[in-house]
Amino acid sequence: MLRRVSTMESLHHGSHTHLLDRVDVSAREVTARLDAIIVPTAWPADALRHVMEVGTTIGAPVVALCSRASAPEQAVKLADHLESATLAVGVDDTLAGLLPSFETDKLLRAHGFGSTSDLSLKRNLGLVLARDFGWQRVLFLDDDILIDDPAQLHRAAGLADHYRAVGLANSGYFDNSVVCHAYREVGGRQDTFIGGGAMIVDALRTKSFYPNIYNEDWLFLLGDGVPFRAARAGEMRQRTYDPFANPARAAGEELGDTLAEGLFWLLDAGERIDTAGSGHWGDALYRRRAFIDLVIAELGETPAHRKMRRSLETARGRSADITHRLCQDFMEAWQRDLEAWRDYLTLLSPGDFVRRLDTPERVMASKAYKINVSSLAYH
C-alpha cells in the first residue's frame, strides 16, 4: 500500500498550500472593513438566512445573485424579516450579454464541455457590481458555507490590501474535486486549497475574471499574473455533501481539474505557467489518467467503494475525451479572454452597469438596504 501511495504522489500533488501565506487574524487589528458580501445562490430563500445574519452582525450589505429556485422577491422578503441590508438580483442568461463574450465558452461548447452552471456568470457579475458601487474589499461567500465568528471578517478584510485573495480556512467538510475526495478515502494525503466559496478580493484592483469551468476560482487567482501572493486566514465551515452521489459531477469537473492541477504542478516546481505547451499537457493527461487508475485499483467492494468507483470510472472516461491540444487551446483562449475582460473594465464608468440592470423585476432592495446603504444611491 505504501508503495502505491508513493506512486500516486509522484502523479498528483495532494497539497498546494505552500503557495499560500497562513495569517492568524484572531488578534489582528481592524485596518479596513469588509465592504460587502456577495452570494451566488440557486436555492430557496432560506438558504440565505445565515449569510444575511452574518452581514447584519458585521454591518456589511449582502448582494444575493439569484437564479433557478432562488427568487429576488423571496430573498428580499426574508431580508426584511431579518432586517438585513440585502440587494437581490435576478440572474438569467440575458445578463451574460452585458459582459464580454468569452472565447473559452465557445471552445468548451464546441468540444462538448460546455457548462450549464451559472456560478461563474454570477461571480463575474459580482465583480462588476462591486466596481460599480465602489466596493473595494468584498467577500464571495457560497450559501453552503457557515461563518461561526463574523467579526473575523473585518480583521481579514485588511489583508486584501496586500494579497491577491484571502481565502478563509475550511474547518468543515473537505472541499475537493470528486477525484481528490476518492484519493483521500483510499489513504492519500490530500489537502484543500482556498476557494471562491469563501474568498475576499479587492474588486477595484483585480483585472481577472472567472471562466465558466470547474476550478474557475483557481484560474481567477492566476488571471492577474504569476507569481502571486494569496493568504489563508480566518475560518469557515463547508456543509457536508456527498461528492459521489452523482457520477455526472465527476464528469463535469474533469477538464477543469486537469487544467488547474496541471497549472499548479508548474507553480509547485517554481516554473512559469506561460511556458506550458502541448508537451506539458500531454504529460499532465498521462499523469492524471494513471493517477485515477491507481485510485480505482485501491477500491474494494463495499457499497461506498462501489459508488466511488462509478464516479471515478466516469471521470476516467471523460478524461479520454480531453486532448493536449484542447488544453493548449483553452489556455490560449483564456489569455485572450483576460485581455477582453481588462478592456471591458477600462470602459466601465461608475454606476453604468447597475443602471442597465435596474428594473423592478430584476433588482430588488430590502428596507434596511435602502435606509442604510445610501452611499450606493440605490432608488
Q: Please give the radius of gyration in angstroms.
A: 21 Å
Strand count? 10
Determine the fraction of residues in helical runs and give it as a percent range: 40-55%
Beta percentage is 5-15%
Structural class: alpha/beta
What is the H-and-E element order?
HEEHEHEHHEEHEHEHEHHHHHEH
What does this protein look like?
It comes from Paractinoplanes atraurantiacus. This is Glycosyl transferase family 2. It contains 14 helices and 10 strands. The protein is of the alpha/beta class. The chain has one domain (2-371). Strands 1, 2, 3, 4, 5, 6, 7, 8, 9 and 10 form a 10-stranded mixed sheet that branches. The chain is globular. The N and C termini lie far apart (64 Å).
Tell me the layout of helices and strands.
Elements: H1 2-11, E1 20-23, E2 36-41, H2 49-58, E3 62-66, H3 72-82, E4 86-90, H4 103-110, H5 119-133, E5 137-141, E6 145-146, H6 152-157, E7 165-170, H7 178-185, E8 198-202, H8 216-222, E9 230-238, H9 247-268, H10 278-297, H11 303-319, H12 324-347, H13 352-357, E10 363-365, H14 367-372
Parallel strand pairs: 1-9, 2-3, 2-5, 3-4, 7-9
Antiparallel strand pairs: 4-10, 5-8, 6-9, 7-8
